[in-house]
Amino acid sequence: MNIGSEAHSSARKTLTVGIGCRLHSSAEEIEAAVRATLGLRSFDEISTIASVDVKAHETGLLEFCARHALPLKLFSREQIAAVSVEDRSAAAREHLGIDGVCEPCALLAAANESEAARAPDAAHASIGSMTPVASFAADTSNARLLVRKTVHAGVTVAIASTAARLACEQTNNDTQKQDLP
Question: What is the pTM of this model?
Fold first, then answer.
């Protein structure tokens, strides 16, 4: 692979995927759920997988990330609880004491990537790594859910991004500049 195509490929990686799964979900089950949730979006657009920190040793999730060379960002229950969830999960509430996993994790990861882009020294993960994001505050105002929670065979998936919001802000800023004398 040449450097030009690698740079072009990484520029398109604008999606963060939040995943919640049952204990012992297989990599194949997780992959099927992610592919179904992506719909017409490309798998190559995924920059990061995100979940709750108790999934740090979940074999299926780790194998899925390794197969696709995707970093796994893990958030604490406290960080997740700080994010508002419309579609609350009884299972997440019962087992983890939080209202959801996939949606807040997708939003937190998108916001974390946006923050890392503004302050490159804040970038935590490299391809294929697993990173607990311990110091990241739960400000998800710059992130947007593109796909709300979907459920496939015990795996919940949500997709978020900051790219759509940034593109909109860029357009608005360009318009404002044109109006100046």
Answer: 0.76
Q: Count CB atoms within 10 A of the CB of residue 43.
A: 13
Rg (C-alpha) for the chain, rounded Å, is 16
Token pair for 141:
């105002």
- Give yes or no for a contact between 49 and 73, defined as CB atoms under 8 angstroms apart: yes
Pairing of strands 155-161, 144-152: antiparallel
CATH fit for domain 3-179, picks 3.30.70.1450, 3.40.50.300, 3.30.420.180, 3.30.230.10: 3.30.420.180
Q: What six digits make up the tokens of 139?
A: 């400000």
Q: What is the pLDDT of residues 93-128, one digit of tens each?
A: 888 889 899 999 999 999 988 676 655 544 443 334
